[in-house]
Amino acid sequence: MEQVMKNQRVALITFDEQEKVFHLSNSEISYILQIEESEVLAHVYFGKRTTHYHNHKKYPRRDRGFSGNVPLNEDRTYSKDTLPQEYSGHGGMDYRLPALMIRRENGSNLLDLRYESFQIQEGKPNLSGLPQAYIKNDTEAETLIVTLKDREEKIYVDLSYTIYRERAVITRSLKVRNETNDPVMIEKAASFQLDFTNSGRFDEVIALPGAHVKERQMSRQSITDGIKSFESRRGSSSHQMNSFIALTNHATTEFTGEAIGIHLVYSGNHSFEIEKDAIQQFRVIGGINPYNFSWELQPYESFQTPEILLTYSDQGLNGMSQVTHHLLRERVARGRFQYQERPILVNNWEATYFDFTSKKIEAIVDEANELAIEMFVLDDGWFGKRDSDQSSLGDWFEYQGKLKNGLKGIADYVHQKGLKFGLWVEPEMVSSDSQLNRNHPEFMMKEPGRQPSASRSQHVLDFTRKEVRQTIETQLRHLLDSVEIDYIKWDMNRSLSDVYSVSLGKQNQGEVLHRYLLGLYEMMENLTNDYPHILWEGCSGGGGRFDAGLLYYMPQSWTSDNTDAVERINIQYGTSLAYPISAMTAHVSAVPNHQTGRVTSLKTRGDVAMGGVFGYELDLTKLSSEEKQEVAAQVEFYKKIRQTVQYGDFYRLQNPFEQNIASWEFVSKNQQEVLLFINRRLANAQPEFHEVRLVGLSEEKLYQNQIDGKVYSGSELMTIGLYFPDFYGDFQTELIHFMSIDEGE
Ligand code: DGJ
C-alpha cells in the first residue's frame, strides 16, 4: 500500500485494511506486524527499510505434533506455539516464554491475547513517572497503539510503537488495563517481545556483563537451543549485567552486517530472555525482571511498563552504536548540560578518601587552579560525622568542624579561584549509626522481625514511601539552597536486599522494587527540574547504575571505580557499545593504581581518560613539577578536543577484548577534526607491526597530524591506513590529533 501524505509529510505508519498489515517505516527501517487469523497479532519483520510489503511473508502453515491449534480455531496447521507474535500471554498452546502473566482472583492465569483495535497518532505519548525517549515536536514521530484483549476477560494490553522520522529507532512500551470488576495480579509484564523466524539474520547476542570495578565487558555469544537470560536481581541495573543487549549475526563486524540494539530505559531489576526452539526460531523478551515482581492491578486501573529502545543498523556494530548514541544524547538526556562541554574536574576521593581537612582541600584547589582544571568535587566524607564508611548516611548536613570554614567556606574558596564546586551525595542510603536512623529506624528497608543485611556497612531507605523520600529531599534542598553547588555526584553503593515495605500489604510486596524506582525517579525529576544549573552525575560504586533510565535525569555517569588505564580501555570500549561518550566520565588517577597496583605512565592514563568526559582523581599536590607540566598540557589539549570527544561521532576500530591492541576514533561533525587513540597492552621482543585504518573521514580533505605536521588525504588514511608507532614497553598509547587543512577552512 502506498504511503499517504499527511499535511505534506509522508506518513510513517500505514495500515493495509485488506491484508491487515501495519507497516512502520522511515528512510532507514521497517517494522511490520499483521493481524492474523482469529485476530492473533503476528510479527512479520524488523530491519532495513522496505518500500512496500505485499504480504508475501505471511507465516507458513503446518500441522506440527503437540503444537495445538490457536484456541477456538479448527485449523491444525495454525498454532500459537510457532507463529511469530508481537506479544504473548500465557497458555493458549504457546509453550514459549510468555511476555505477560496475569493471575485472576480465582487463581486462573490463562491469558489469550487477541487483536481488538488500533490507533495511529502523531507524536509520542508521555509515559508519566518513567524515563523515556522524548520528542521535540509532534511531527518528529508517529505512534501506533494496538490494543489486544484477553479472549474472555476485559483485560487489555495497549502496545505502543513509536517510529521517529529521522532515526533508525522504534520505541516500545505497553499498558495493561484491568477493566474487570476484580483486582488481578500481574506476575510478569515484559516491555517488548521480538519473535524471529529462521531467517539466518540474527544468530548471536552481545551482552555487557561485569562486576564492581569490571563493568560492561563485551560478551558475544551464539543464540543456542533453550533459554538464555541476561538479568539483574539486585534492585538496580547493576555492574553484573547491564540493561542492554544487541542482536547480531556471526558475520556482523564493527562496520558491516546487521545489528539491533535493545535498551531498557529502566534502572531497576531487568531481564532479557532469549528462547530458541526446535525449528530454529527464537523469541526475545525483555523488561522488568519478573523475579520478586508482582503488581496488584485494581479494577479500572492500568500498569505502564518501562520503555524499550530498539535501534537498528546494517552498518555493523558501530552503525548500531551511533544510532544509539545519537538517540540517548539527543532524545533521552535532558537539561542544560545536554550539549554543553563538560568541565574538567578534580575529585578528592582517591586523593584523600575520608581523611581531609580544609587545608588539604584548599591545597588541591590551588593546584587545580594553577593547572586550569575547571571544577573541584568534594567526594564522600563532608556530612554527618562521616570519617569512614561506618556512619552518617542519611544525615545530609555538614560535618561541623571537619572543614575549618565549613562547606560554604570550601565552596567559596573554590569559586574565588574561578573553579566550579561539586559535591557527592548518596541519598538512597542510611547508616545504622546516623541521626536519621536513630530518629526513624522504620525508614530502613527490612523484613519484619529480621535484621537486614548490611553491605559496605550501610542499608537502603524505603524509597517507596513518600515521607522517607521527602525527609531526604528536604535535606538535599536545604543543602543546595545554602551552598553554591554546581555539580552533584549521586552515588549508590550497594545492591538492594530485604526488599519489604511496611507501607504495602502482604499481597503487594512484589511491588516494592518497582515502586522504589518510581519513587527514586520522582525525586530525581523534582531535584533536576528545580536545580537545572547543576550538572548531575550518576554513580553506583562506579558504573553500577549506568543505564538509559538514569541518563534521562543525569547526562553523565561515573563509568567505573576502576581507574587503571589498562582495564579502563576495555570498560570504556564495552560501555561505548551502548552509551554515548558524553555520558561516560573518565579520570586520571595515581600510580600504583589503587584498584590493580599497576603502574602506567601519565601519558597512557591521560590518553585513555581523554576517551571520555575527562578529569583527575588524585592528589595534585603530590605531583612532581614535570608531572604538573604534563597535566597542564593534558588539560589544555582536552579543552581543544572535547567538543569532538563529547559530541562527535565515535568509532570502535580494534577490539581489546580480542587482541593485545585497541584503537578508537572520534570525528567531528564537519569531519574537520579527527582523534585517533591507539594502544598496545603488552610488549614482546619480536613485535608485529600493527596497522590501523581510519573511518568516517572526508575522502578529499587533507588531514594534518598536529604533532609532526605530516599531511594525509582522508582517502589514504581510510584505505591504506597507518602503522602503530614502534612502541617500547607495556601499556603504551598514542592519541593522534588530525586537523583538516583544506583551503578556505
Ligand atoms: C563509590 C564511587 O564510585 C567513588 O567514586 C566514591 O564516590 C565512593 N563511592 C565514595 O564513597
Quick description:
The protein is built from 12 helices and 40 strands. Strands 8, 9, 10, 11, 13, 14, 16, 17, 21 and 22 form a 10-stranded antiparallel β-sheet that branches.
Can you walk me through this structure?
This protein is α+β, with helices and mostly antiparallel strands and 745 residues long. Helices cover 19% and strands 30% of the residues. Strands 8, 9, 10, 11, 13, 14, 16, 17, 21 and 22 form a ten-stranded antiparallel β-sheet that branches. It is globular. (2R,3S,4R,5S)-2-(hydroxymethyl)piperidine-3,4,5-triol binds at residues 349, 379-380, 424, 491, 493, 539, 541-542, 558, 561. The site of (2R,3S,4R,5S)-2-(hydroxymethyl)piperidine-3,4,5-triol has 11 residues, from loops.
